[in-house]
Every structure is written in C-alpha cells, then in structure tokens.
Amino acid sequence: MTLHRLFLALGLTSVMSLAAAQTVLRVSTPAVPDDWHAKMWTVMKEELDKTAPKQFDMQINLNASLFKQGAEPAAMARGNLELSAISAQDIAKIVPEFSIFTAGYIIRDPDHLHKVHTGAIGTEMAKLVSEKMDVTILAPLYLGTRQVNLREAKNVKTPSDLKGIKLRMPGSKEWLFLGEALGATPTPLAFGEVYLALKTGTIDGQDNPLPTVKSAKFYEVTKQIVMTSHLVDGIFISISNKAWNALSKEQQAKVKTAAINAAKYNDVNRIKDEAEMVTFFKSQGLSVTTPDVAAFRSAVQTAYQKSDISQTWPKGLLERVNAVK
Ligand code: KDO
Asked: Which residue, judged by its Cα, is nearest atom 14 of ligand 1?
C-alpha cells in the first residue's frame, strides 16, 4: 500500500469511528413540517449540537414517515426508535391511570397542564410510564386546545347539534370516547389522511387545536370552527429507556434540558399563535362560532363519570388535578 493510500484508509477509519461514537437518536412524529411541535425537534437537535458536540446524531422524521401515528411507543419498546412525543391517549392504552388526561374539560389551560405534569402528579405518572412502557418522559408540551372543525357550517350550540356528524378522531378507544361524549359519531382515521377525507367528504369534521388546523391546512377544506375548547391537549417528549440508560448522567442532563427547551419553544409559539388564529381563519372565509360551552362541559363530564375510563383513575386523582393552581 502506498503511503497516500494508507493515509486515506486511516482517515476513513477515523471518520467511521467518530460516526460510530455518536449516539443515534431517531425521532418519529406525525407532525407536519410547519407545525411548532415539528420544528421543536430541530431546536432540540441544535441545542444538543452545542452542549454535547459530536455526541448525538438526531435524525428527525416528520409526517409519520418512519412510524405511523400511535405506533411510536411499541417501536421505542422494541428498540427501533429512541425519541417521540407521545400522546396521553397512547400512554393510556398501557397505563390506564393516564386516561384522566384524555378526558374533556379536566385540564383548564396550558399553565394548569404544565403545573400538573411538572409537579408531584407528573412525577408519579412518569414513574408508572417508565415501569410499564419502558420509556422516560423528558418534558410535557402543550399541543393546544382542541376545537371542532366542520366541513359544512352548522348551527352548533349543544352536543345534540352534533348528532350524526361523522367526526374524525385519531384511532383509539380513548379518542373515540371523547368524540362520542361530544355528541358526534366518531370515525377513526390517521392524522395524515384527514385532509383528503375532509376534501372528499368521507368525514364531516375533525377536532384539533387551531394551530394544527392552520399548519395541516384543514382550513382549506372546512367552513366552520366551533369553539368547544373540549380538550387542553398535552403530549410528552419521551426517550426509550434503552437509549436513556445507555447515556452518562451528564448526557442525560443535557438531553433532558434540550427537551425542556424544545417544549418551551413549542409552548411559547403555540400559545401566541392560538391567540391570533381566529382572525386568520375569518380572513380565510371560515365562520368561527361559540357554542354553549357549559352544555358541552356538563355532557362530556357526565359521560366520563359514568364510563369505564374514569374507573381506572386512582381514588382522589381528579381532586388532586383540580387542586393544582
Ligand atoms: C390528531 O391526530 O388529531 C393529533 O392532534 C393527535 C395528537 O395526539 C398528535 O398525535 C397529533 O395529531 C400529531 O402530532 C399531529 O399534529
């Protein structure tokens, strides 16, 4: 081997060993690129590149391009995925106690959401999640307050006005129950299929926070937003325990801080956006109406009280959540 070739080979080997030394953190999310909870992953990646240079190779997969919506926790448990933002509904499938956060009209606002999940209740829940799902919650984030978004305008005041409306919900028991509690006929569908289903009329509506209605362009194919504010929705930046336990304490601290800062970036922007959205939708020709929210709250709360879902909530948990100020 010539000296030149030897150097080349050595150079390649050192590049390869450098690459091998980096911890790969694969991210999978159904979020669309324009959404804050998609952009936040880049914020996390850029912070880690600064605080732990060359230690992590964060690979961000948006639009459910790596795993389909809801398949992330199983992929993480199998060791095929390291990072994701998991919904309360997906956690509740395995940790039934968590279903309290899937119920309408319990969490009051983003501040309440943050305090519940970063306080004692959040710590207890995160312990259960780690034990039963083999994932570690790094940071809660605010997805937004969910509203009903209809293809055709309708005078909606109370849940009975949604009777017969085919309302798309993500596909799990907890989501479908919420749709039913709102008075509609829930239809399960993956997030990525909602735009076309609204366009072609296979569904009559969907529910999502206003910033999502904008980023996923649902406003292009719908005529009305009914401000039911039925779920102050949180999702949870999480890492597989396999990946988490392989990190040094110092790396764990850096990953956690980067996740918290990414969640903060999402929350600040999303809250600001949410406040400005009504004007935007009106400018796009949608009607934005306010129903009798008290009637929706009462119907939804009664439905949960009577359901199997609330039977899984530990005694006193609802009161403790309500008491968080
Ligand atoms: C949705 O499918 O309606 C939903 O809002 C549910 C959330 O839990 C979350 O999965 C979200 O989609 C995606 O992150 C896309 O915004």
From this structure: 31
